[in-house]
């Protein structure tokens, strides 16, 4: 299992969600976050309001998947979020040790999706 975290521009969220749904990936967590990349929040002012500490508003998307879905998730994130402008975001991929659906007690791949 894998855990994928992506930081994207807020105005790309709907496209990313559409691209994920097109690939049968429906279970996601979305959080509003603050962050900064290589430009330290400075040269992206035209795309986003700057917060204290040169932090910009971003969206964090988290998806837990079985390994076979990883290529589709990465493609959806890239297709949905890429504009080729500075600040498009970043994708982080983690190994996921365990997933438990609390209601049923299911574990692992049985608990992760659908
Ligand atoms: N190494 C990192 N560690 C933690 N968060 C990061 C890291 N790199 C990027 N981020 C997060 O991703 C957001 C978007 O990063 P961004 O796309 O600006 O990366 P970048 O490396 O500066 O690339 P670009 O040159 O395209 O702007 C940042 O605001 C921050 O929240
Ligand atoms: Mg940047």
Low-confidence stretches are none
Class computed from helices, strands and strand pairing: alpha+beta
Estimated radius of gyration: 15 Å
- The total domain count is 1
Shape estimate: elongated
Helix content: 10-25%
Q: What would CATH call the architecture?
A: 2-Layer Sandwich
Work out the strand percent: 25-35%
Mean pLDDT, nearest integer? 92
Key terms:
3 helices, five-stranded antiparallel sheet, binds adenosine-5'-triphosphate, binds magnesium ion, alpha+beta, Alpha-Beta Plaits, 114 residues, single chain, 5 strands
What does this molecule look like?
This protein has a single domain, classed as Alpha-Beta Plaits (2-Layer Sandwich). The protein is elongated and about 45 Å long. The protein starts with a strand and ends with a helix. The chain has helices at residues 13-22, 70-81, 109-112, and strands at residues 2-8, 29-35, 50-51, 55-65, 89-95. With 114 residues, the protein is α+β, with helices and mostly antiparallel strands. The chain is built from three helices and five strands. Strands 1, 2, 3, 4 and 5 form a five-stranded antiparallel beta sheet that branches. The longest helix has 12 residues, at 70-81. Helix 1 packs antiparallel against helix 2 (70-81). Residues 7, 35-39, 56, 58, 86-90 line the site of adenosine-5'-triphosphate.
Summarize the structure.
This protein is of the alpha+beta class. The protein is built from three helices and five strands. The structure holds adenosine-5'-triphosphate and magnesium ion.
Topology:
Blueprint: E1 2-8, H1 13-22, E2 29-35, E3 50-51, E4 55-65, H2 70-81, E5 89-95, H3 109-112
Helix pairs in contact: 1-2
The chain binds adenosine-5'-triphosphate and magnesium ion.
